[in-house]
Amino acid sequence: MLRNSIRLVAMFAVVALLMCGQCVWAIQITIDYRYDINHFFDTNPDTTLNPQGVLGAQQAREALTAAAARYSAIITSPLAPVALVDDWTDARIEFVHPGTGASFEVSAAGSAETDIVVLQGGAAPADEYRNGFSLDADQWLLYAGARSLANVATGGTGAGTNWIDVFDDPNSHLNRGFNVGFGSLPVWGGEVSFDSDGSTQWHFDHTTAAPYDKVDFYSIALHELGHTLGLSTNWRDFKQYVVDSSFTGEHALGMLNRDNGTSVTTVPLESTTNLHWNDNWDGGSYQSYIFGLADPNLVGTVGIDALQDLLMEPIADFVFPTVRRIELTNVDVGGLEDVGWEIVSVPRIPGDTNLDNKVDETDARSLATYWGQSGGWAQGDFNNDTVINALDAAILAANWHYGVTESAAPAPEPGFAPLLVALLLGLGARRRVR
User: In terms of domains, do 46 and 11 share one?
Assistant: First the structure.
């Protein structure tokens, strides 16, 4: 009976995964290249201004699109539609121009002569007048470009005129129903810019692993998009969890402890002013598993079964020469949830510690490694009683090789089968006593 019920739960989990593969998630990141004045993403074959050629520009666009799609599939928070109008409270958006690095304001007015912020507030004219500006429901706008940078890339969230006054308005271009009455994170969109002066040797093709002497564009795009969505920023939504040089958000912290089998109380940051996850914790790096849902790009990574450096660290510590890509980890996604975004989730297959939708030797090793200890799902606590024991072994055994075709299934590693038998014998003896 236990075996059948567990398999039924697993069947529903697989069905949910298949259905979610066809879902349209709430947030839809739209990339806008209108401020790419240095032609980094220019795919026009007739131009000679593109610094890396048409193929490089096309691959850069595809990699950035793939990074945006990764977040779009993870974040499920709905965003209200918005139309900026030429009024005092919701008149402008502001961001760093990705091609120049200067602050840039866009107004919904038709011109400076009709701009109410200029006429009534005495403000300087906007940098651009749109004569109307709107975003569809769930649309999140990303302005992308490039310029000469000291680092490989930069990304940030957009601000706006009078933003302090409009966060209580769920229809504001800065709020759109997100953390109404509390947040300070603008959710109309943001900007990202990549180094284009030739000092960075980019690998643009997100379908292949980067060689050791090039920088993986997809990894950097994921990192900078994390900033635009509120990770490691000075906005209140992130800063509320910052104490000195540590982060206390329960979701990021919980994932760090779950994946490492630890019980630390904070996620260390670089410093009080540099809010990236700390790159060197207690004399060594700290890590997390790649977030297994929403189609991670595993090409060039450590894979779904191994710990990886956190994406939002300031320096990517690659394992030469095979690992050349950093993906979103459970800790990074936990940070998104702490900031206020709703995150995709599906029923987990009992016995699947690493969320790769199958129960195999990797999951058995997790169970054996953490046997008798307290832990979470990643350690083998499949019944959520905080202890990894014979009850969890029974669940793993009942679901053994679920999702693994028998022809492709590797033989169990020596030593695991006797261990599992011993555990189940212990479970049987305990049942007979009852």
Answer: no
Q: Are 427 and 393 in contact (CB under 8 A)?
A: yes
Q: Which residue has the tokens 């993870």?
A: 74
Please give the span between the terminal C-alpha atoms of the chain, in angstroms, as a whole number.
18
Are 75 and 174 part of one and the same domain?
yes
CA atoms of 109 and 115, how far apart (whole Å):
5
What CA–CA distance (Å, rounded) separates 29 from 67? 10
Please state, in angstroms and rounded to a whole number, the distance separating the CA atoms of residues 189 and 32. Answer: 11
Instruction: Give the confidence band of 347 by pLDDT, cuts at 50, 70, 90.
Output: low
Nearest to 431 by CA among 398, 395, 391: 391
Kindly state whether residue 286 falls inside one of the protein's structural domains.
no
CATH of the domain at 219: 3.10.170
Q: Which of 139, 332, 123 is nearest to 219 (CA)?
A: 332
In a domain, 386, yes or no: yes
Residue of higher predicted confidence among 99 and 345: 99
DSSP one-letter string for 42-90? ---TT-S--TTHHHHHHHHHHHHHHHHHHHHHHB------EEE-SSSSS
Tokens of 367: 């169970």
Please indicate, yes or no, whether residues 139 and 45 belong to a single structural domain of this protein.
yes
Q: How many whole angstroms separate alpha carbon 391 and alpha carbon 389?
A: 5
CA torsion through residues 389, 390, 391, 395, sign: positive
Q: 42: domain range?
A: 26-229
Q: Cα separation of 173 and 106, whole Å? A: 12
Residue 145, pLDDT > 90, answer yes
* Residue 10 and residue 128 in one domain: no
